[in-house]
Amino acid sequence: MSDTPYIASEDSGLLRRVLEGESGDSCLEIGAGNGGNLVELSRRYSLVVGTDIVKPTMSDWSEAGANYVLADGATCLRDSAFDLVAFNPPYIAADETGDPAVEGGRSLEVPRAFLREALRAANRRGRIVFLLSDEADVEEFRTECRKRGFGLEKLTSERYFFEELTVYLAIAD
């Protein structure tokens, strides 16, 4: 397992561009990596929390007033606590997870686990913004959202080299 956070790439930039339009009282980013999105979110949210399984190497998030919790997902945080929950999970399918920063597990267990945590942590007027690659079965994610009373819509997508990345929005019905 790597002890280095995921370094921002095209996927991070795509999600960040969508997050620039979000604002509210409280937000959470699951799998916050080095905290670049936390800096952006701190401009428009009173409470900003990021979680990840590795310690960030950058400190911009702290200087921006965000909070960072070393945790797997959001299990340590209260139910229904956030207006916005965002995540860009490790989304590359892999038989055995060698690097949790990029590999999403055999059946993309990691992105599905992030979604379950996001659905639990978002409040009833909350929004969940997340990124998936074209390897994901979007209908599985839609079904999980429906079970929790959330609808799912596609916001934007971009093609990069060998994959198409899409940002989705889940909102309470």
Layout of secondary structure:
Layout lengths: L9 H10 L4 E7 L5 H7 L2 E8 L7 H4 L3 E4 L11 E6 L4 E2 L9 E3 L3 H13 E12 L4 H10 L2 E11 L2 E10 L1
Parallel strand pairs: 1-2, 1-4, 2-3, 4-7, 5-6
Antiparallel strand pairs: 7-9, 8-9
Low-confidence stretches: none
CATH class of the domain at 10-127: Alpha Beta
β-sheet strand percentage: 35-45%
Here the CATH topology of the domain at 10-127 equals Rossmann fold
From the alpha carbons, calculate the radius of gyration and give it in angstroms: 15 Å
Order of helices and strands: HEHEHEEEEHEHEE
Helix/strand structural class: alpha/beta
Number of helices: 5
Distance between the termini: 39 Å
The CATH superfamily title of the domain at 10-127: Vaccinia Virus protein VP39
CATH architecture of the domain at 10-127: 3-Layer(aba) Sandwich
Largest sheet: 7 strands, mixed
Q: What level of helicity do the residues show? A: 25-40%
Number of E-type strands = 9
What report would you give on this structure?
The protein is of the alpha/beta class. It has a domain at 10-127: 3-Layer(aba) Sandwich (Rossmann fold). It is built from five helices and nine strands; from the N terminus they run αβαβαββββαβαββ. It has a seven-stranded mixed sheet, with helices on both faces. α2 (36-42) links the parallel β1 and β2. The longest helix has 13 residues, at 109-121. It is globular and about 40 Å long. The relative contact order is 0.17. The mean pLDDT is 88.
